[in-house]
Amino acid sequence: MPIKRHLGEARRAPVPRPAPCLPLGRWPGYAVAVWGLLFAVPSFVWAMGGTFGAQSMVSPSLVKLARDGVPWFLAVLWVTGFVKLFGALIGIGLTRLRGVRISRLMVLCGGGAAVLLTWHGCLFVLYGVLVETGAVSVAPGLVELTRWYLYLWGPWFIVGGLAFAVAAARYVRRHEDRRVVQVYGAVGALGALLLSMASTATGIG
Fold first, then answer.
1. Which of 48, 55, 121, 135 is the most buried (most CB within 10 A)?
2. How many CB atoms are closer than 10 A to CB 58?
3. Could you report the per-residue pLDDT of 114-142, keeping only the tens digit for each?
4. Global pTM value
5. Average pLDDT of the chain?
6. Alpha helix segments (H runs only) across the chain
7. CB atoms within 10 A of CB 72
C-alpha cells in the first residue's frame, strides 16, 4: 500500500516546466534596426540641403558637394539613406524565424553587412590611431576630422557590424534549415570581405 500511495502522489505531482527564455534573442536584431535608423538620419538631412554637424565630422569636399546641391552626390545620399533603412528592416527581420527564401536573403545581407561595417570601422580607427601617434601626417585642418573618424565613425561602424553579426548568428542557430542558411551567411561574409579588400587596395570606397 505505501508503495502504491507514493506512486499515486508521483503521478499527481506537477511536472516542472523549463524556465521561459527570450524568443530568438531578439535584442541584436532590434539593435541593428535602431542603429540603421539613426545612421540614416544624417544621410537624409544632408540630402535635403542641411549640413548641420557635417562641417566638423565629414570631409570638407563632401560638405561642399552637399552645399552646392550637386545632383549625383545628392542621389548618392538618398540611396545610402535608403540602404541604411533596408539594413534596419533586415535587423527587424532577424528577430523572428521566416521562410527559407527570406531567411537566406536576410542572413546573406546580415553576413555581408557585418564584414563590411566592421572592416571599414577598423580601418577608420587604425588610421586615426596612426595620425594621433604621429606615424601618419595629415594637413593641420584635417586633424580634427580624423579624430571624428577615430572616436565616432570608426566605433559606430564596428558596433553596427557586430550587431549584424550577432543577430545573423543567432538567427542561423535557431533556423530549422540551419546548414543551408549558414552557407548563405558565409557567402555574404566572404563576398563582403573580398569587396572590402579590393576597395582598400584600389583606394576606392
1. 121
2. 18
3. 999 999 999 999 999 999 998 888 888 78
4. 0.82
5. 85
6. 2-12, 27-47, 54-57, 60-68, 71-93, 100-132, 143-148, 154-174, 178-202
7. 7
